[in-house]
Every structure is written in structure tokens, then in C-alpha cells.
Amino acid sequence: LFCFGFFLGMEKLVTCQYQRPNALCRLICYPWSGGGTFRLAQWGKLFSSSIEVFSIAIPGRESRIKEPFAKDMTTLVNEIASALLKEFQEKPFAFFGHSFGSYISFAVALHLKEKYGLEPMHLFVSGAHAPNSEEFNAIKSISIYDKEDEDILKEIQNLGGTPPELLENEDIKKHVILTYREDFRLLQTSFFEKAEGNIPFSCDITCFNGTEDKSYNLEGWRNLTSGDISFHKLPGHHFFLLEPSNEIFLTKHIATCIENAGL
Fold first, then answer.
1. I want to staple 129 with a disulfide (CB 3.0 to 4.6 A). Which of 120, 136, 221, 232 is the partner?
2. Beta-carbon neighbour count of residue 243 at 10 Å?
3. 245 is known as an active-site residue
4. Cα dihedral across residues 215, 220, 140, 101: positive or negative
5. Which residues are in the Thioesterase domain (predicted)?
């Protein structure tokens, strides 16, 4: 995978396959559990020259496979925020995250707002509960260590998104299961408690979901911003975003939202 000549720290964290130094805005994409950078980095070709796409590489996979998994959510958030701080300060940025990636993008956005007074111009979340919902807290209380490998494998297969032929390779299958466990553990170390009357963001938030996916508690997202919030259901299951027609809708919609923000 291509990681171009960014300064040390950022070059291992970001895949940018379509570099656009003169872009007006950056879209920072966060992967789903077990996911890599490749698919979301490819979105770069679907946008005009005004938007540059960064796809975030998380430790323990792809080009970072020899690195230990992130210790906890705070460690991961600190790595992303410090490595990309110059980029966040340089020009407007938006976040897109799917599933597990939605929770990482939210945690990074919260950290940037609290520590640096920076926030995305738009937060696009997909296939995820609001982080202040009972449903999200219920996920965090599940004991991943009590689950057998076979049970986790079934969950991965039910979700889709992982090519079945990959899971036929014993080493790859073991690593996919381990990554899922580690990502789940990471999720359980995330902490957010919304103080009464505190609205952390002022940016717009858009929530995407698949029509055949389970239902998510999305209402909580309304309480996290003073900006506008919108909801879109697209045909498909949890990985609806991998369907080419949905990818086109998503990228067009994201581009429209960014352009309407008056860059």
C-alpha cells in the first residue's frame, strides 16, 4: 500500500493514494473493525480536486502488522491527533468513520475540540450507535475474553465485509479473529460521559446505515452538536458502503455537504 512522503509518524498512520496538496479540505477516513486503509483510500478518486482523502492505518494490521495493537483508545487518539495536528490546523477537515471507525472518529474529534479548540467541519458516521447511548454502553460491557474463536468467527462472517477466501487461510483467520478481539477491547476502553447541558460540537453530523442492518440508537447524536443532523438509509447490510452504487452515493453526498459548507 502506498504511504507517500509525509513526515515520520504521519507516514505510517496515513494512506493517501490521491494526493491533492491544493485541496480546500481533507476527508479523514477511519476503518471498521479489522479493516485496513485500502478501500477508503480508494475514495480519493471519486472526489474532485477540492477534497483530499486520508485513510487512517491502525496498529496491528497491513503495513503496521508488526506493531503491537493500541493499548487503549486514549493512546490511539493521542497518536492520531499528534501526528496530524499540523494538517488539522492547516485547512478544514471532515471525518468519516464506519462502525468501529465511527467511534474512533468521534473520540479523535472530541480530543481535538477539548485540547486544541479544533473540530471537523462535518462528522459523517456510519453503522454505529450514538456514543452516549445505552446500546453503546451495553456493547462495552460484553466480555470478549469469554468468547470462543469460533463464536467470533461466526460474528465476522455474519457481518460480512471479510472475503470468505481469506478466512480459509489459517494464519489470516487467526489474525482476523485476534484483530477483532483487540478492536473490541479498544472500544471498551473508550470513555465518554456527556455532562448535562454540555454540547461538545457545533459541526453538522450525518448518520448513514444499511436498510438490512440491525437498528442503531442514533438519536443520541442529536445531543452532541448544535449543528444540523441528518439520517440516510442505503440498501444493504452492515457493509452496505462496499456496494459500488452506495459508494457513489456516499462520496457524492459527502462532497455536497462539504461544498455547501462554503469553503
1. 136
2. 16
3. no
4. positive
5. 26-246
Residue 97, all three cell numbers = 468513520
* pTM given for the model: 0.91
- Of 33, 55, 99, 190, the active-site residue reads 99
CA nearest 46: which of 245, 232, 252? 252
What order of strands is seen across the sheet that includes strand 51-56? 14-15, 51-56, 25-30, 93-98, 122-126, 204-210, 229-234
C-alpha cell at 11: 507516514
Return the closest-CA partner of residue 43 out of 18, 62, 61, 25. Answer: 18
Pairing of strands 14-15, 51-56: antiparallel
Helix residue ranges, H only, the chain: 38-41, 73-83, 85-90, 100-116, 134-140, 149-159, 170-188, 244-260
| 238 is known as an active-site residue | yes
What nine digits make up the cell of 70? 493500541
Q: Within the chain, what is the greatest distance between any pair of CA atoms?
A: 51
Residues sharing a CB contact under 8 Å with residue 18, sequence separation 6 or more, in sequence order:
44, 45, 47, 52, 53
Domains and CATH numbers, the chain: 6-261 (3.40.50.1820)
